[in-house]
Amino acid sequence: MDVSPYVFDASAENFRTLVLENSDKGPVLVNYWSPRAGPCLMLMPRLIRLATEFSGRFLLVMLNTDELGQLAREHGVVSLPTLKIFRRGQAVDTLHGAESETVLREFITRHVAREAEAKYTAAILAYQRGDLDQAVAQAAEAALAEPDNPRLALDLVKLLVLQRRYAQADGLLKSLSAETRGLPEVRHLSAHVNLIRSAQDAPPPETLMKAIAADPDDLEARYRLSAIMLTQDEYETAMMQLLEIIRRDSAFHHQAGRDGLLAIFALLGEDDERVHRCRALLNKIAH
């Protein structure tokens, strides 16, 4: 059945590899069907659409019971159509009948979400034991298993930042939906990553300070200087440069000054005295 890269036909020869072994990697949905049963023919296009929609977060395997009746009976199938989810070599859930696409999506999503949660938990455990590489790998798999969950993507970004993989972190942030990118936490994280990336190829601080002294309106120099100061934990100096950018041109680089400043506020916390002072200055500029 060559209709989707995520849909396969079962045979006596490939069942172990296709279903049992693949179920060690993620959920495998087996559709037990017969070409002689009308409900099976109604169900099949719904399943294929969902397999395509989920883009590999589960595999769909079609098992024709007219050809593999003995195998179906071994799995306890007594009516058609029957759907079984396999995980780690075992059937873990069953659904009978030609259900609606809504019911099918809920059935599949439940297992895909469990898969994402398991990967996320593994990522946390790996991080706690200091295995950052494994934490990133597990977090990436969790984010792929549930791409509509912004929490998983954001935690992956944070791990990538810890690994100093700033370009990948930035790319992942930019791949999020416009709605998600507009969330305060995402804007702060994106601004933080942008500052770090700006510091990577910036001239020495002395060169930037000379450029600012020669031209106080050189906002690019101010932004890069603030980025370097941030990486050196000179937070107040970084914030002062960002405040000056806001005062001179609040729209600079799509409000990069304000976004960067708020990112540092979030990093330090509202109880930090430096944040209090800078927020008061920001309020004065705004008014």
Give a description of the structure.
The chain has 287 residues and is α/β, with parallel strands linked by helices. It has 3 domains: 7-99, Glutaredoxin, CATH 3.40.30; 111-175, Tetratricopeptide repeat domain (Serine Threonine Protein Phosphatase 5, Tetratricopeptide repeat, Alpha Horseshoe), CATH 1.25.40; 198-286, Tetratricopeptide repeat domain (Serine Threonine Protein Phosphatase 5, Tetratricopeptide repeat). The protein contains 14 helices and 5 strands. It has helices at 15-21, 38-54, 69-74, 101-128, 132-145, 150-162, 166-175, 178-181, 184-200, 205-214, 219-231, 235-248, 256-268, 273-286, and strands spanning 7-9, 28-33, 59-64, 82-87, 90-96. Strands 1-3-2-4-5 form a 5-stranded mixed β-sheet, with helices on both faces. Helix 2 links the parallel strand 2 and strand 3 (59-64). Helix 9 (184-200) packs across helix 11 (219-231). The longest helix has 28 residues, at 101-128. It is elongated. The N and C termini lie far apart (66 Å).
